Amino acid sequence: MANHNDLGKKAEDLAVEFLQKNSYKILIRNFRYQKAEIDIITEKGSLIVVVEVKARSTDAFNLPQEAVNKRKISLIVSATNHYLEEFNKDQEVRFDIISVLPDAKGKLVIEHIIDAFEAFDAN
């Protein structure tokens, strides 16, 4: 497996641990719908929280969360709508990003960006 795949998997595992420690209930990981994948779908209180995890080995070019562009958001929103229908969920949805970067000592650091983006009409 490529190093970036290893980092991505490790980042998702760290994100799950972080969310669980902060009272989020993990509903599903790596939910796929057509060309989209949602990294983590959680529940906190009455909210469904959709979490996109982005990791980079360096921030030299851009921050991990900057990779979540309009196309990616559109795919996430589409997959979220399908998830809500498939599992008969009628709850408010929030979209978060968890960014993972190594610090100067190489330790992976999590930044949780709450309400990082909103659903929009891609048409």
TrEMBL record:
This is UPF0102 protein A0O34_09360. One of its GO terms (molecular function) is nucleic acid binding. Pfam families: UPF0102 (PF02021). CDD domains: PoNe_Nuclease. The lineage of its organism: Bacteria, Pseudomonadati, Bacteroidota, Flavobacteriia, Flavobacteriales. Belongs to the UPF0102 family.
